[in-house]
Amino acid sequence: MKKRGILYITLAILLVVMGSVKADKNKLTNEDILIKAFEKTDSNFQSFNINYRGVLSNKFTNIEDLRQTTEDISKSIGLIKINSEEIEETNMNQVTTYAQDDSERNITIVAYSFFDEESQKGETTIFLDINETNKYEELDEMTSKLSHTLKKYDTNVEITSCIVGTFEGKLESDYKMGKIEQIVNITKGKPVESLIDPSITSVSLYSEYIDRYIFSGDKKMNLNVSMRYNEYENKTYMLIGTPIITTGY
User: Fold this and answer.
1) Domain positions in the chain
2) Tens of each residue's pLDDT in the chain, 249 residues
3) What Pfam family is a match, any one (predicted)?
4) What is the rounded CA–CA span in Å between residue 57 and residue 86?
């Protein structure tokens, strides 16, 4: 218990000191800063994930129009090996497309629409999920490409991205603290909240390098770093996500 308290205090001091450094907005931003922070830790690349969600309209959309939307997006970003599933019901339609691009990234597109009879209101939403397990260098390029594609639908898109790395074996607490320090230093993150227990180390930050954010209470946050040991694989996983980690591990 005493050791845990010391670690918590040490992490808090570290975050306050590192968070006091001002960010230079002329440098890397968004996914580029995630890549830079990831590379600084020297972890082994496992995967990255990008998730998009946006409301296309406040009305119920027929299955044909949903199908056309997924086809247009697939064509715009150059998807191949496309398989689709459709669900058509009285008050709910959904088209799900499973595909890959020319870099063999797995990409899922879901166009979903429902109508609520009680309120007499509908909504149509688009979801995109991109998963890459071979390389991470094109993370920012892929995000920009998809954001540009979705602009034509005149919707505010919520974006989350996460890069996952691993270290062999179970890391000592001091070593994990050092890796977190490297990430805080690169991103100039200001502390929002943190959690340390025997199974997980998690830190939430706000970085001026990243232009999207959510609120934790009344504080902005847009960067989440988490480390956890997997005893079955004998590896320590590290996840760096913005604005929050949504990938399970």
Assistant:
1) 30-242
2) 544 444 444 444 344 444 433 334 444 567 788 888 999 999 999 998 989 999 999 999 999 999 999 999 998 888 887 899 999 999 999 999 999 988 888 999 999 999 999 999 999 999 999 998 888 777 667 777 777 788 787 777 888 889 999 999 999 888 998 999 999 999 999 989 988 887 888 999 999 988 888 998 899 999 999 999 999 999 999 999 999 888 765
3) DUF1779
4) 19
Q: Per the structure block, which two tokens stand in for 16?
A: 């306050």
**Nearest C-alpha neighbor of 46 from the set 211, 200, 167:** 167
| CB 50 within 8 Å of CB 139 | yes
What does the block give as tokens for 237? 């996983």
User: Which fold does the domain 30-242 belong to in CATH?
Assistant: TBP-like (3.30.2030)
Which residues fall within 8 angstroms of residue 192, CB to CB, at 6 or more apart?
A: 204, 205, 206, 216, 219, 220, 221
